[in-house]
């Protein structure tokens, strides 16, 4: 081995150019350098040789690499052009490696400075076979890849030629071949530099083999990714293309089958079945994918989706799974609202809520106050829960990180995702109780508006089967989710306000919860309302626990009697009563009329209802505790006026004006609403023997009067009771009769204490009937009315038709208190009753609950005994007491 040196002009190659032995390059050189090279060529006999050394760094042009190549100048040309600064094109051919003997700094003037260089010693030995083979293998692998990746045939041919040459190369020339190959393939600057600086042939083969393997691997991965991308794009394009073709074929087929299938020459939207089918499925899939990973609902969705794919389209089972998935994906699962709605956190929330309640409702001051308290509590709890949620969220990422790691190990047994859920707002559930149309639903709506949440009303009227609340299992034909999940879907959010209206079925007085073989609906209802259980509410159809803890439940009922004990236990009752006429007038003016005007496209200038007319609508056309029929009647009046107004405008346009008056007078009402409904009844109500008016609260929670009718018929001294009466009311009839029999002598009905008024002087039966026979009646409160009716029948004295009464009696003749006083008095007022007889113990109810304007216009008589009730009903001294009024009282006190 021998090494030699020489002096060669140094030509720095601009970064990142590297010339390797055996390769050629052409590069542009600046004018000065070009001219220096020209001088060199002119001075030399043959083509001169320079030392082409790469610049090692792209930032510092003075830092030359240690190794370079002795290169022959093959060509130096100056392309034609007028510019004197035009650069030269230089072509070099690399001959052999050189090493700079000393560090060299290029000349800033681009002149060629000769410098001492050393030629590395030439090795005579061939590198070991194994090394050469490895080198060749890796070179072949790379060349094959490059040929595969290349789009041009000519390049592919080139790579195969090089491969063939490689086979023929002897071991001694393998290192030379390595130089050429590294120069040819797209090796990096660093790789080329490392090859250049490796002077030992064996080591060079090893380095080259490494470079080739690296490049082949990179190329393989790149082309794999490219293929995948290409495949997916291709698939999409193909699908799109095929769909287009399908649509075109359909269109053609339709045009062949005649123009009947075409709407205006175009296909109707009903024809595009397949497309819609595919779109629907894609939509379903997207919705499943959007579900929270790891959640129960998603797992169920994925499972059912896979089943759906296996089952042929058009089969019954396919339809069942489709509709199940539609439901599953339409439910707002709890992750959809993890933030507290803004409204509740606002400082002005309570003021805004108060304004909302005032804007929607007249009066109801106590109830509004209670609702504001309730909302204040809801707000505080929500805010506390939100704070806790944020604290939990801060530690949650760690938990999730862990669960992700586990996920990669085994996807099927991945732990359930722990969600930072908002805690439920626990507390009493409000129960609005009151007659229909008194504002229960609209109060619920106002609460929802104030909380900025969706509102849904769920009516449990006639619910007899647990499945209606909880859904039916999918094994049922036409099964589906229950009322709760249906409402949740309609609400579209997991934190709505639900108003549950609990009513008994029309012909069923017994409470919700009479359990039967279909399961107990009241148990399901209790579960829905129970904050401890409702975060995992199980709907039989959905079959994945649904979180109801964010739902705000409010219950409503018309009367407390329809509510079962356990349900009542969980609720806080807010009683709403009927309205007085005064209140109804205000509500009608301020709320109902404007609402109806808006609904019917009219404004206040076009329809005004005179005060007497409005009052007549309230008193003669409607007679209810609430204002629903009143609203309906006002709606009818506005629609009538809307027609008149439209005719007026049309007539104006045709030049024959028709007069229009916006004010509705009382005299017009009959033309608009027909004959008043309550006139006839009033006329019928006359003073009669044996008839007394009692006060009742009907099943709907509405107060009113009820005639107690009695007649005497020939018989055997018995009492006959009719009118769908319950046990309690029948018993109170018996008590009333026994009392009258005991006092028949004192009331001058019989001649001696021993005589039975039903047997002497004649043998009679008394028949007592409470009309509206189809409606079930029960309760003890008709006691005094029955006693009065018996006395009237047996004595012939009459009770005036403007008097009504209520009160339970005991056998000793005591009158004990009863419930529903407010409703009963309001009902009596509506029925134009002017005097009401009530138990003494109910004075406080009148004082507290009955509106002052009613107290002013009605007479209230509070009685402690039946004697006092008789006196109040028949009038002082009307009944001829044998011993004067004190007699029976003394007798009573002796007892
Ligand atoms: N105090 C009030 N102020 C203004 N409008 C009222 C008032 N009370 C009731 N209304 C109106 O009367 C109509 C009937 O009321 P709503 O539907 O709330 O009755 P409800 O008590 O829920 O009846 P039901 O028991 O039959 O469900 C609504 O349009 C409501 O806005």
Automatic annotation (TrEMBL):
Keywords: ATP-binding, Hydrolase, Nucleotide-binding, Peroxisome, Protease, Serine protease
Recorded catalytic activity of this chain's protein: Hydrolysis of proteins in presence of ATP
One annotated GO molecular function: ATP-dependent peptidase activity
Name of protein: Lon protease homolog
Similarity field: Belongs to the peptidase S16 family.
CDD domains for the chain: RecA-like_Lon (cd19500)
Positions of region (Disordered): 257-276
List of residues binding ATP: 434-441
GO BP annotation list: protein catabolic process; proteolysis
Compositionally biased residues, Polar residues: 257-268
NCBIfam families membership: lon
Domain Lon N-terminal: 8-216
Natural source organism: Mycena indigotica
Pfam families per record: AAA, Lon_C, Lon_lid, LON_substr_bdg
EC number in record: 3.4.21.-
Active site annotation, chain numbering: 781, 824
Domain Lon proteolytic: 686-876
């Amino acid at each position: 081995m021998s090494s030699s040196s020489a002096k060669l002009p140094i030509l720095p190659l601009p970064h990142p150019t590297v010339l390797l032995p055996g390769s050629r390059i052409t590069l542009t050189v600046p004018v000065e350098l070009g001219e220096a090279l020209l001088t060199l060529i002119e001075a030399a006999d043959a083509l001169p040789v320079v030392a082409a050394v790469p610049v090692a760094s792209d930032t510092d042009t003075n830092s030359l690499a240690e190794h370079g190549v002795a290169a022959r100048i093959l060509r130096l040309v100056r392309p034609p052009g007028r510019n004197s600064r035009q650069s030269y094109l230089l072509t070099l051919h690399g001959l052999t490696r050189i090493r700079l003997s000393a560090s060299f700094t290029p000349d800033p003037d681009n002149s060629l400075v000769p410098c001492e260089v050393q030629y590395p010693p030439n090795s005579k030995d061939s590198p070991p076979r194994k090394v050469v083979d490895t080198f060749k293998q890796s070179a072949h692998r790379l060349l094959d890849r490059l040929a595969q990746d290349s789009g041009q045939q000519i390049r592919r041919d080139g790579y195969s030629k090089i491969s063939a040459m490689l086979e023929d190369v002897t071991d001694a020339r393998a290192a030379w071949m390595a130089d050429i190959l590294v120069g040819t393939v797209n090796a990096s600057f660093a790789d080329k530099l490392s090859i250049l600086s490796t002077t030992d042939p064996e080591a060079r083969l090893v380095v080259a083999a490494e470079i080739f393997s690296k490049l082949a691997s990179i190329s393989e991965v790149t082309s794999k990714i490219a293929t995948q991308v290409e495949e997916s794009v291709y698939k999409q394009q193909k699908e799109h293309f095929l769909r287009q073709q399908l649509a075109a074929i359909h269109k053609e087929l339709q045009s062949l089958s005649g123009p009947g299938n075409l709407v205006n020459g175009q296909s109707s939207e009903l024809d595009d079945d397949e497309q819609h089918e595919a779109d629907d499925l894609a939509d379903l899939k997207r919705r499943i994918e959007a579900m929270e990973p790891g959640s129960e609902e998603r797992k169920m969705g994925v499972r059912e989706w896979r089943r759906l794919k296996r089952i042929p389209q058009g089969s019954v089972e396919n339809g069942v799974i489709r509709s199940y998935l539609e439901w599953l994906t339409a439910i707002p699962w709890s992750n959809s609202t993890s933030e507290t709605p803004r409204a509740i956190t606002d400082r002005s929330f309570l003021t805004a809520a108060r304004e909302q309640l005032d804007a929607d409702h007249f009066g109801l001051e106590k109830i509004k106050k209670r609702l504001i308290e309730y909302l204040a509590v809801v707000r505080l709890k929500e805010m506390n829960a939100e704070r806790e949620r944020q604290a939990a969220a801060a530690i949650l990422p760690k938990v999730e990180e862990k669960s992700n790691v586990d996920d990669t190990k085994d996807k099927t047994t991945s732990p359930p995702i722990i969600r930072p859920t908002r805690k439920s707002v626990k507390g009493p559930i409000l129960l609005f109780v009151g007659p229909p149309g008194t504002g229960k639903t609209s109060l619920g709506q106002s609460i929802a508006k104030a909380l900025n949440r969706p509102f849904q009303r769920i009516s449990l009227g006639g619910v007899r089967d647990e499945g209606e609340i909880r859904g039916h299992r999918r094994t049922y034909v036409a099964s589906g989710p229950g009322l709760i999940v249906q409402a949740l879907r309609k609400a579209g959010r997991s934190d709505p306000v639900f108003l549950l209206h609990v009513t008994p079925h029309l012909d069923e007085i017994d409470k919700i919860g009479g359990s039967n073989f279909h399961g107990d609906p009241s148990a399901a209802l209790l579960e829905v309302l129970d904050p401890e259980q409702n975060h995992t509410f199980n709907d039989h159809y959905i079959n994945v626990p649904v979180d109801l803890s964010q739902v705000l439940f409010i219950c409503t009922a018309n009367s407390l009697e329809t509510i079962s004990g356990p349900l009542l236990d969980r609720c806080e009752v807010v009683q709403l009563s009927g309205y007085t006429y005064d209140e109804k007038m205000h509500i009608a003016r301020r709320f109902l009329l404007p609402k109806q005007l808006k609904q019917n496209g009219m404004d206040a200038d076009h329809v005004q209802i005179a005060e007497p007319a409005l009052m007549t609508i309230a008193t003669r056309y409607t007679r209810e505790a609430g204002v629903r029929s009143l609203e309906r009647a006002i709606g009818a009046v506005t629609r009538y006026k809307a027609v008149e107004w439209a005719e007026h405008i049309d007539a104006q346009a045709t030049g024959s004006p028709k007069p229009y008056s916006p004010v509705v007078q009382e005299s017009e009402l009959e033309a608009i609403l027909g004959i008043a409904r309550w006139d006839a009844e009033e006329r019928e109500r006359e003073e009669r023997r044996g008839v007394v008016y009692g006060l009742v609260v009907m099943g709907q929670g509405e107060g009113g009067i009820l005639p107690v009718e009695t007649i005497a018929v020939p018989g055997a001294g018995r009492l006959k009771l009719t009118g769908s009466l319950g046990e309690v009311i029948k018993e109170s009839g018996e008590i009333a009769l026994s009392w009258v029999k005991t006092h028949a002598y004192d009331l001058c009905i019989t001649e001696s204490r021993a005589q039975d008024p039903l047997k002497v002087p004649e043998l009679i039966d008394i028949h007592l009937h409470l009309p509206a026979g189809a409606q079930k009646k029960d309760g003890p409160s008709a006691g005094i009315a029955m006693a009065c009716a018996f006395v009237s029948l047996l004595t012939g004295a009459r009770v005036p038709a403007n008097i009504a009464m209520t009160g339970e009696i005991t056998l000793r003749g005591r009158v004990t208190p009863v419930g529903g006083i407010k409703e009963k008095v309001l009902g009596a007022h509506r029925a134009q009753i002017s005097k009401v007889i009530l138990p003494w113990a109910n004075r406080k109810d009148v004082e507290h609950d009955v509106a002052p304007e009613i107290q002013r216009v009605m007479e209230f008589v509070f009685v402690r005994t039946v004697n006092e009730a008789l006196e109040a009903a028949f009038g002082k001294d009307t009944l001829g007491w044998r011993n004067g009024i004190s007699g029976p009282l003394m007798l009573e006190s002796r007892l």
